[in-house]
Amino acid sequence: MHHIDQLFAGLSAVTPISDNQWRVTHPGLPDDWGQGRTAFGGISAAMMHYALSLIVAPDRALRTFHSNFVGPVVFDEPFEVVIEQLRSGRNMSQYLVRLNQAGKVSVCVQACYGVELTSKLHINKLTSHQFELPDKAMLMGTDAAKLPRFFHHYDLAMLQGHRPFTGSSHCHYYGWMRNRAPVELFGHTHLIALIDAWPPALVQQLEAPAPMSTVSWDLEFVNPLIPVAGNPWFAYEVDTRFAANGYAHTEAKIWDEHERLVALSRQAVLVFD
């Protein structure tokens, strides 16, 4: 089993390509971070964020992170992450990031970073949660051999919802999540991977396994993340807003242990059922 920080450490030093482009390389992601025939999407997106963190100015905080999963990321095969700065002004910086493998784009990310501004506006219509911290973690299934391989790097405590492929009428999950192995300093890179650890909420309505794939994934970071050591719990609430014709659309909220909303998530999922 490869620790998540071990994967990030495998990225090369940044090589400038031009005044607004940079490149880093990686020898390849191991099979224990796999999901079917491809690497777990959350770890691919996290690798791209880690590469961004090597060149983004420290006064800029991550505000939005939009991922498109174009093709598979094959295990144990080298890849490169190419970063292009689209624009950087006084307040905002915008980047286009591509994960390329074997000459093809596998994942594409558009990320926006911004400085904190003084504002008279203060609106908060987002609900909080009433979840008690779990006293134990549980995998979302009784047969560990049938779970995606990356799943064993995370602890999920499900409070509402049912296990995948149980023919449930539910299409939401409420619960807690954390890294199984502690990290030296938990930051946005770890959080991006962690949020994607939950399966699509509609998977519990299926009665048998079926192929599915995330098409696009939007993350908005609404409160600063407090960096901490270890493996902190985060509360998670996801609902399926619409599903038809092989496509499903979900929305999620993520809170830290102090009940601070830290991120909003939205995914479009392709289902072959």
Number of strands: 16
N-to-C CA distance: 32 Å
What is the count of DSSP helices, taking H or I runs of 4+ residues? 3
The CATH architecture of the largest domain is Beta Barrel
Sketch the major β-sheet: 12 strands, antiparallel
Estimate the strand proportion: 35-45%
Shape: globular
Q: What would CATH call the class of the largest domain?
A: Mainly Beta
Q: Helix/strand-derived class?
A: mainly beta
In the CATH scheme, what's the topology name of the largest domain? Porin
Computed over alpha carbons, the radius of gyration is: 18 Å
Question: Quick one: CATH superfamily of the largest domain?
Answer: Acyl-CoA thioesterase, double hotdog domain
- How many separate domains? 2
Instruction: Assign a percent range to the helix content.
Output: under 10%
Order of helices and strands: HEEEEHEEEEEEEHEEEEE
Q: Enumerate the spans where pLDDT stays under 50 for 5 or more consecutive residues.
A: none
Strand order of the largest sheet: 1-2-6-7-8-5-12-16-15-14-10-9
Mean pLDDT score: 92
